[in-house]
Write a structure and sequence with these properties.
It is a single chain. The strands form 3 sheets. Strands 1-2-4-3-7-8-11-12 form an 8-stranded mixed beta sheet, with helices on both faces. Helix 5 crosses helix 6. By secondary structure, the chain is an alpha/beta fold. The chain has 9 helices and 12 strands. The protein is 33% helix and 23% strand.
Length: 298
Amino acid sequence: MLVDLVETTAADGLRLDGVLLPAARDESDVRSPLAIDAVLVVHGTGSNFYGSRFLTAIAERVAKWGAAALVVNTRGHDQIGNALVRHADGFASSRTIGSAYEFVDEARLDIAAWLALLGERGYSRIAVIGHSLGAVKTIYTAAHDAMPGVVALVAVSPPRLSYTHLAASARGPGFLEEIAKAERFVADGKPETLLSIRFPIPYMITAESYLDKYGPAERYNLLKYLDRLTLPTLFTFGSQEVQQGIAFRDFPDELAKAEAAGAKLKTAVIAGGDHHYTGVQGALLDTIERWIRKTVVA
């Protein structure tokens, strides 16, 4: 399949890259079209638009829905990298980016830029599918900003970024040690010190970025924002990750309570699914497709 490599510039001048897969043209490849014409696909922690088989599987299914798929980088792509920043005075500079350095709130700029690109290309009925931290970014953005052209949100396996929840878990003492270490570096005026953390996942991250994501402020605890969601929203989880992953445990139950209380969302748990839905990606995508068909009308 021919694809279009694309780029956009966020409001703060940061250049971002992605790939646009067109809708399938052969009628034999297209199922009954959905009431969307494009899907924006947002990666998780340290991932990117070109190296994830999972995101590719999503994009290929989207094409069979008769919609285009835009798989994109946010400034949190890969672990550490450099990006071009274009300045208003015409000059350019580089900036260190990646999952080790990102602040999740800035993803709002990235998502806005990609939605603007889709709008410029004539797409007006857009679904956003975010995976893992990309799902957190999707829901957090929807709770704070208008999302022009977006008619549905799908949050695939968003972690529960709750300091209170993680601290109360079986691995809470180790988590609190990580937090205390990050706080010491920030207090000492060394916020960009890279730490090798182990919880909730092992990776390199700066002290200030770790506190941004997992600190006591609970800035990205999605349970705080469910009442702000005005778009139809589907949350999905794999049954294995809910059973085994501390950041996912009890999250579907909490979302179900919010749904019962009137929140504009649905929750689905895919039997046998791990964080990347190994062996059950078809079941996940079937679930998303059925939900879109039922929920989004032309």
